[in-house]
Amino acid sequence: MISDDYIMGFVEGEGCFSIAIGKDIDRKPRKGGKKAAWKKPALGIRVKPTFRVTAAEDENAVLYAIKERFGIGSIYTQQRKGNSSRNKRPVTHYYVQSFKDLQIIEDFFKNKTFYTSKGNSFKLWQECLEIIKNKGHLTKEGLLRICELRDKMNPRLGGKNSRTADIIKNILEIKPEHIEVHAKQAQLIHNPNQLDITKWHRKRQGAFKLEEINPLPAQS
């Protein structure tokens, strides 16, 4: 079985402790009328902690060894496109996303010694988990605190967060009456005076593309 020291070394280089922040949108019903089964977050914004380790597909044996060691998580292979043959190499990810399983990951790393900035990211990630355990992410204050912590994580990734703490704060201050997209609903209800961020939901919307949306006129 793979050693703890080997896991630590590999995670220092190829691991990632992350927190995803995304809007919760009820999209068009799938075939058969099915919709997402998960519980909707109170603020309309979903918080998703994740642990990920990455390796090239032809070197992914270590990921299966890590998965066997923890006894949790899933492994996915991603096909990539690029200009060079190196960039086109498929990449494999070991993911742990269940909050219950993430606590196993937390227990493993909390007493380990990190030698890179990954250790600081883990501490920030661990603080986010604690807020989520206490249901703090369901409050405005707790959600913003998680966003602030996440903005400081994983500096080597270059700060790719598209929804920073300031953006989330602005969204919450709008206090939209409705931020879900329904099959028969062509408009969202936002404060028409805040046109600069009324289209915040458009980012990373996947395969389902929304038509141009105009704010409803202000009610007298």
Reported for the largest beta sheet, the result is: 4 strands, antiparallel
**Total E-strand runs:** 4
CATH topology value of the largest domain: Endonuclease I-creI
Helix percentage: 25-40%
Count of DSSP-assigned helices: 6
In percent terms, what proportion of residues is strand?
A: 5-15%
Can you give the mean pLDDT? 77
CATH architecture of the largest domain: Roll
> How many structurally independent domains?
2
Order of strands, main sheet, comes to 1-2-4-3
Query: Regarding CATH, which class of the largest domain?
Result: Alpha Beta
The sequence of SSEs as H and E is HEEHEEHHHH
Quote the distance from N terminus to C terminus.
Answer: 69 Å
Q: Report the radius of gyration as a whole number of Å.
A: 20 Å
* Overall outline: globular
Low-confidence stretches: 177-197, 203-216
The CATH homologous superfamily of the largest domain is called Homing endonucleases
**Classification by helices and strands:** alpha+beta
In short:
The chain is an alpha+beta fold. It has six helices and four strands; from the N terminus they run αββαββαααα. It folds into two domains: 156 residues, Endonuclease I-creI (Roll), CATH 3.10.28.10; 39 residues, no CATH class.
Task: Describe the 3D structure.
There is one protein chain. The chain has helices at 4-14, 61-70, 99-109, 118-133, 140-151, 165-174; strands spanning 15-23, 45-56, 74-78, 91-96. The chain is of the alpha+beta class. It folds into two domains: 4-24 and 40-174, Endonuclease I-creI, CATH 3.10.28; 177-215, no CATH class. The chain has a four-stranded antiparallel sheet. The longest helix is centred in the middle third of the chain and has 16 residues, at 118-133. The radius of gyration is 20 Å and the shape is globular. The termini are far apart. Residues 177-197 and 203-216 have low confidence and may be disordered.
